[in-house]
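Protein entry
_____________
===
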Amino acid sequence: MIEPRRLRVALLGAGAVGSQVARLLVTHADELAERAGAPLDLVGIAVRDVDAPREVDLPRELYTTDADTLIAGADIVIEVTGGLEPARTRILHALNSGADVVTANKALLATHGTELFEAADRVGATVAYEAAVAGAIPIIRPLRDSLAGDRVRRIMGIVNGTTNYILDRMDREGSDFDEVLADAQRLGYAEADPTADVEAYDAAQKAAILASLAFHTSVPLDAVHREGITHIDAGIIDAARKAGYVVKLLAVCERLVDQPDAAPTGEAISVRVYPALVPREHPLASVHGANNAVFVEAEAAGDLMFYGAGAGGVQTASAVLGDVVSAARRHLAGGPGVGESTRANLPIVPIGRISTSCQITLEVDDKPGVLATVAGILSDGRVSIATVEQTTSAGTADEASEGAIAHLVIGTHTAREQDLSDTVDRLAANPAVRRVVSVLRVEGD
């Protein structure tokens, strides 16, 4: 009887995700072999310190600091170290050595994805990355494969669990941002330095990946418009609730039509990340805690939603191992790997070119004529008012001499983003306006 081929698997990284990947490869070896069609032998784990404490008890001889030698002898290389370097160099080494690569590295893909995919195409290998966006949620393969024959019109995604946890608790409990952020750090949802999450860098990386897949266009990270959530306070959350909305940090990837300078099809795309108002009846409004969800609007398939755990070691390891099994099957079947489709090459428009409706919250002098002044500025800027809510409060002691303050919450009809931005600048410069508290777009209406 011919001994079945055994596939050699090298693992780069043994952190929260890597340790769970290693555990599942070892403890579920028989099941994975049946699904893949051949045994998957974990031949080594590259780490910085072989003696560091680990979450999973594995034989010490599996650990090595010699990543290059480990990569050179592998059929499949799993990269879960994160960061740009040495991850980029090691993945290129793996591909040039004839290995398929499975990675969860969203920052690397958003920054150097084109280079890595081109390297894989040259040698007939595959770079698989289901775990790079939304953790355990299967979204990469549905966009790349299941919807390849459809036209995706729009994606709205809650793709960062830390910010969703913060905004959800602020909405449900009326808590302040700083208080909830401290809780998120204590619970392990947020890092000691939460900048990547709360300033939306993490979500922007994922948006670039999703847009590239959905629209078959290479989307560089610097083309993604990004705004974080650090300015969101309890008052903004309360105003949103009264208007029938919930605040969510959304990654929005949108196909635009009838663009005058987008020859020959007239189509372009917009990729943006910002806190947005979502109607409470929309499915994304019910995504609570640290969960993620991706809402896809496709021409033929209609509306689809993918929901689940967006992070966590064992959850992300599930997505990694799904890619490992697929890579193993390709190795056994032979032939080139599945390349990335970026041939549409649609132009990416800046934020000023899109059209949205929004909610503008202002602090203004509470005196006759101010509302008319504000309405005139909006009208001059080609921004039409849909709703207005006004509340009055006696100011602080320092403000009392200047009179009371009124809070205006203005909902607008759809307007061009550049017109909205220019109008908000004019509002901020008007003497009757004490402060522009917030400007939040409405998505999902």
